[in-house]
Amino acid sequence: MLSIYAGTNFYIARSLYLGIITVLPNLNVWLYAGLYAFIALSLFVRFFPVSYSVKRFMNCIGVHWIGIFVYFLLFFITADLVILLSKVARIIPNPMPSDIRLWSTCIVVVITAALMLYGKYNAAKIRHVSYDIQLRKTALPKEIRIVMIADLHFGYSSAEKDLPKIVQGINDLKPDIVCIAGDIFNDDINLIRDQDKVIGLLKSIKTVYGVYACLGNHDAGRTFPEMKSFLERSDITLLNDEYRIIDDRFILIGRVESSPIGGLDGLKRINVADIMVDIESDLPVFVMDHSPAYIDEYDNRFDLILSGHTHRGQFFPFNIVTKSIFAVDYGYYQKNSEGPHVIVTSGASTWGTPIRIGTNNEIVSIIVR
After folding, report:
1. Among candidate residues 78, 100, 122, the one where a domain is terminated
2. Are residues 248 and 345 in the same domain?
């Protein structure tokens, strides 16, 4: 992967350089290469033993570079293919005039910049998505309003800045219960700038039955014990392959993530059948399971599965990728009339680069009848 990243960056750096030197022929190649390498390698600084202020600064550069890198690569390849085909068809002369290279570079830069600006603008919005679920086995005497969010990625994304409006959006929906379907953190809790402020905002969520969460693949690593303490102080109940009977109306299960990044301090996911052994009730069963990759584990004993993880690809072209990988990468799904209802959210925040193109940050409300 590092070799691929290095090779594609060399290709982008060379393509940019060939365009720039048409107007800046005296550009120092070593200065250019050093600046480009600084930006391209900024992603990896958070893995080194430097201060958290340096990590946050470099992370800010790195996460924006991810989106720029993807679109530079996509559009420079497209531009080079167009130029090659034009040469073959003798639409442009060979050798190629330098102004064609300049204009192709300018077009790539302008389109990439426009997409990044739009993606940032779109990612600043948090939309409300709603679903209405009719249970197939037993109709509830009174409907339940579940509000679900996922993929906050505190310490990596803009979720800390956006948290006041996320909390306000949740409270405006007047939920009976709030479910957070994993990836609350992003590998290292110490990347959160102001933990007390975040905790205070999370504690201000208003519900009838409380806030519950399951683990995601990024809710792990060496600071996992601190993550658990953080959730406790936030009045969030973490369910690790455990269940709660909520007001004798329904059962809520939270699953342990099967592929944690950095480990869960010895905690391992167990078979869902082992959880169900202790449940002696005909109440509806709802499950928080971070990734929709595991929905086939659930049979007709379960009524509703809540997942996140995919971000719906977050930005084009990755929404095509997630759609091809998962049976459902977003929205509502039911394999058959006897199977559980499945709802996958695109997440309340971003991961990787802080943009949304073709997808949205969202808060999900689910009316269960």
Report:
1. 122
2. yes
Distances (CA, A) of 337 to 47, 134, 137, 303: 47, 12, 11, 11
Same domain, 172 and 186: yes
Residues 329 and 362 in one domain: yes
Residues 174 and 311 in one domain: yes
> Is-contact 290 182, C-beta < 8 A?
yes
Q: Got the DSSP string for 301-351?
A: T--EEEE--SGGGSBTTHHHHHHHHSS-SSEEE-SSTTSPEEEE---SS-S
| Cα distance between residue 62 and residue 78, in whole Å | 24
Dihedral sign of CA atoms 179, 182, 361, 133 in order: negative
Number of domains in the chain: 2
Q: Encode the chain (369 residues) as per-residue pLDDT tens digits.
A: 889 999 999 999 999 999 999 999 999 999 999 999 999 999 898 888 889 889 889 988 999 999 999 999 999 999 999 999 998 888 888 788 888 999 999 999 999 999 999 999 999 999 999 999 999 776 677 899 999 999 999 988 778 999 999 999 999 999 999 999 999 999 999 989 899 999 999 999 999 999 999 999 999 999 999 999 999 999 999 999 999 999 999 999 999 999 999 989 889 999 999 999 888 778 999 999 999 999 999 999 999 999 999 999 999 999 999 999 999 999 999 999 889 999 999 999 999 899 999 999 999 999 999
- Burial (Cβ within 10 Å: 0-12, 13-18, ≥19) of residue 114: exposed
User: How many angstroms separate the Cα of 73 from the Cα of each of 70, 108, 176?
Assistant: 5, 9, 46
Those residues whose C-beta lies under 8 Å from the C-beta of residue 32, and which sit 6 or more positions away, are 13, 17, 20
The alpha carbon of 174 is separated from its chain's Cα centroid by a whole number of angstroms, namely 25
118 in the same domain as 223 = no
DSSP state of 60: H
DSSP one-letter code for 257: P
Return the DSSP state at 204.
T
Same domain, 199 and 233: yes
Strands 211-214 and 236-238: parallel
Which DSSP string corresponds to 177-201?
Answer: EEEEES--B-S-GGG-S-HHHHHHH
Residue-range definition of the domain harbouring residue 94: 2-122
Dihedral sign from CA coordinates of 5, 11, 16, 20: positive
